[in-house]
Amino acid sequence: MRTIEQELESVPLVPLIQSNDPDIAIETAKALVAGGLFAIELVLRTPQALNCLSAIVQAVPEAIVGAGTVLNTRQAEAAIMAGAEFIVCPGLHKPVIDVVKVHGLPICPGVVTATEMQQAWNMGLRILKFFPADLAGGTAMIKSLAAVFGDVRFIPTGGISADNLAEYLSVPAVLACGGSWLTPKTALASGDFEVVTELAAAAVAIAAATRG
Ligand code: 3PG
Question: In the annotation, is 185 catalytic?
């Protein structure tokens, strides 16, 4: 079985799913997989998010499903119990990182500043979410940070779309890009999962053209 890092080296995209309905979450995940995206971040921002997570884990075994917007250790434990294979946080919080490490799972905390990066680096972390990417300086900021933290790979998220995806993926320090543009709320609400597959396939094509 491939790891999340291996998957992102191959297809550098992390689509976000936000849903309060396990059936919609399953169909969205299936649509992403049909478009070529297997690494999926289910964000814990709805009352049914954990049920959505475990539903995808069970119904879409070919996906590598992680939990996002994990804010505290309780959520981290619950997400891991629900079957999350990796954990993503918007910020840097050592107790969450410690809990996830105990379970031996990948943890990707969010950073913006050199101070946060230095803290994460000293916790042994080498893959970091850069959030909110576009507002925090975009590719120029990533290049500046990468010049200092040469062994860190970034997953920029926040404000990324098909329009600027190639710009981000052309930066060598970027491991992958995350975002919700691949799962539009309107498409999910209307059950138009073909749109999700089309957006996923378009992003895969951009990634292939950028990375070769
Ligand atoms: C996140 O949860 O990482 C961000 O809210 C995603 O940002 P986006 O909606 O601009 O992709």
Answer: no
Cα(181) to centroid(ligand 1), Å = 8
Which domains are present in the chain?
4-205 (3.20.20.70)
Cβ–Cβ < 8 Å for 46, 18: yes
Per DSSP, helices labelled H in the chain are: 4-10, 22-34, 49-59, 73-81, 94-102, 114-122, 138-148, 165-169, 185-190, 193-211
Enumerate residues lining ligand 1, CB below 6 A. 16, 43, 68-69, 131, 157-160, 178-181
Q: Whole-angstrom Cα distance, residue 144 to residue 162?
A: 23
Q: From CA 87, how far away is CA 66, in angstroms rounded? A: 6
Q: What is the pLDDT of residue 1?
A: 74
Give me the pLDDT at residue 212, please.
77
Q: Tell me the average confidence (pLDDT) per consecutive run of 10 residues in the chain, 212 residues long.
A: 92 98 98 98 98 98 98 98 98 98 98 98 98 98 98 98 98 98 97 98 98 84
pTM, to two decimals: 0.97
Best residue among 18, 131, 182 to mutate for probing ligand 1's pocket (most ligand atoms within 8 Å of CB) is 131
Token digits of residue 163? 């329009």
101 is catalytic: no
CA of 67 to the centre of ligand 1 (A): 13
Q: Which amino acid appears at position 108 of this protein?
A: C
Token pair of 16, please?
């976000």
Q: Quick one: which of 206, 190, 163 has its CA closest to 35?
A: 206
Residue type present at position 40: I
